[in-house]
């Protein structure tokens, strides 16, 4: 599939992409492998699944000179695959990854208030003068009474807007970063852009409440 020039990505200069790969409705167990468009499929897996599962995983894959990537289904049976682009890398990129001691940003279990269905929770990161491009997070959903999926996206409101009661409800993203079923505990790595406000939203796109845990592992910084 062609990736350069698609979904808001530049047509040139993209050396690798950060993706969330979701497999759903597989007829049999198997795995997906994501690799550059000009290479042969490696003997590794990007997502592993069992029959009937919906499973997502975060993947970083180089983009071939032709601007394409390949997604190979290693199962003997067909499966539906969803590819969401969460970011890209380029030779002219100005941001560098800064690892940090991991810290828990949010845990709905400590407040006793699970994230309601079709609701969102917003978080901001203290920049201390830094120019943040994105956050590297681990998101975990636990104790869900039903099925659903999580979306993560920049918030157009600032933290001051929320403090002053002037925030406008954002429009949720159509993409997913993890999917869950009843009573499952599911986690996935997320690279989330901070937009122009430094505020990131975590959307419960299911119809029933669930507990959400967000851990911060590092940032992409332009300074």
What does this structure look like?
This protein is mostly beta strands and 223 residues long. The protein folds into 2 domains: 14-90, no CATH class; 96-221, Jelly Rolls (Sandwich). It contains 2 helices and 14 strands; from the N terminus they run E-E-E-E-E-E-E-H-E-E-E-H-E-E-E-E. It has helices at residues 108-111, 159-163, and strands at residues 14-24, 30-36, 47-49, 55-62, 69-73, 80-90, 96-107, 120-124, 132-142, 148-154, 178-180, 186-193, 199-204, 211-221.
Question: Could you give the topology of this structure?
Answer:
Elements: E1 14-24, E2 30-36, E3 47-49, E4 55-62, E5 69-73, E6 80-90, E7 96-107, H1 108-111, E8 120-124, E9 132-142, E10 148-154, H2 159-163, E11 178-180, E12 186-193, E13 199-204, E14 211-221
Antiparallel strand pairs: 1-4, 1-6, 2-3, 2-5, 7-14, 8-13, 9-12, 9-14, 10-11, 10-13
Low-confidence stretches: none
What's the CATH topology name of the largest domain?
Jelly Rolls
Shape: globular
Q: What percentage of the residues does DSSP assign to strands (E)?
A: over 45%
Q: What is the level 1 CATH name of the largest domain? A: Mainly Beta
Query: In terms of structural class, how would the helical and strand content be classed?
Result: mainly beta
Total number of β-strand segments?
Answer: 14
Integer tally of domains: 2
CATH architecture of the largest domain: Sandwich
Q: Write the element-wise H/E pattern from the N-terminal end onward.
A: EEEEEEEHEEEHEEEE
In helices, the fraction of residues equals under 10%
Look at the structure and name the CATH superfamily of the largest domain: Nucleoplasmin core domain
**Radius of gyration from the CA trace?**
18 Å
In order across it, which strands form the biggest sheet? 7-14-9-12
Mean model confidence by pLDDT: 91
